[in-house]
Amino acid sequence: MKKEMPKESIAERTRVYIDAHPSIKDCISKDLINYSSLARLIMKDLSIANEEAVMIACRRYAVKLGRQDHEKEILRVLRNSRLELKTKIAIITAKNDWTVLHRLESVLKKLFNDKSIMQVIQGTHAITVIADEKLKNEVVNAVGQENVLKIRMDLVEISVRSPERIAETSGVFAFLANNLADGGINVLESVSVFTDTIFIVSEDDMMQAYSILSKCIESAEKMQVED
User: Which of 31, 47, 72, 104 has its CA 20 to 30 A from that of 169?
Assistant: First the structure.
């Protein structure tokens, strides 16, 4: 006889709902939420009839979120961060194959000697190469045209260079990415390398994306946050 899976409790469903809505979660963590309105919204979206149970679940989760709010730590990092912008960036997406990685080795050695920069990201199904547009043909020739899946040009790389304490501070990447998303910016690729948080966007989004990230840093500099 097949066992039935236990139903999620109202508390668990409420927590899952809040976790799936970052804007609500952020307001809860800062005690900026009307719990009655939130409970009614959750009841409507999840078809729950017990308002009191939802309200209790929201308030209990708020206590936990209040302890986990890392915004002050994030602001301490960002107020000492700086932006760097590079134009004429290309993204070459290739098949995830060991031969592709092997062929890229010669290009990487040359770039290391020339003190140039190229990011190589290996995913489950593809290898992404982020490089200066002038290296596009060299990368394509190295990996082989038959292994190239997609090439994107006219991109911009915006790097947020932070102090080393970013390595021990959770939430910095999410904070910046959420601000870009709220501003309608489509981040094509992103990577975090030690103290650098890198976002690749189209040239059309360059000014808006740079402005958003600048405001994040400027706001952090104005906040009264002790070290």
Answer: 31
DSSP β-bridge partners for residue 197: 160, 192
All residues at 6 or more sequence positions from 42 whose CB lies less than 8 Å from its CB, including other chains: 14, 17, 48, 54, 58
- H/E element holding 52? helix 51-67
Residue 38's alpha-carbon distances to 116, 121, 178, 202, in angstroms, are 51, 40, 21, 37
Sequence-ordered alpha helix ranges (H) in 85-166? 98-114, 136-143
List strands edge to edge, sheet with 119-122.
Answer: 119-122, 126-132, 82-95, 148-161, 196-202, 189-193
> Which residues fall within 8 angstroms of residue 209, CB to CB, at 6 or more apart?
156, 158, 180, 183, 185, 199, 201
Query: What pLDDT is stored for residue 80 in this prediction?
Result: 92
Q: What type of residue is 201?
A: V
pTM, 2 dp: 0.72
Question: Helix or strand or coil: residue 48?
Answer: coil
Look up the CATH architecture of domain 77-222: 2-Layer Sandwich (3.30)
Domain map (residue ranges) of the chain = 10-69, 77-222
pLDDT tens string 134-149: 889 989 998 999 999 9
For residue 7, is pLDDT > 60?
Answer: no
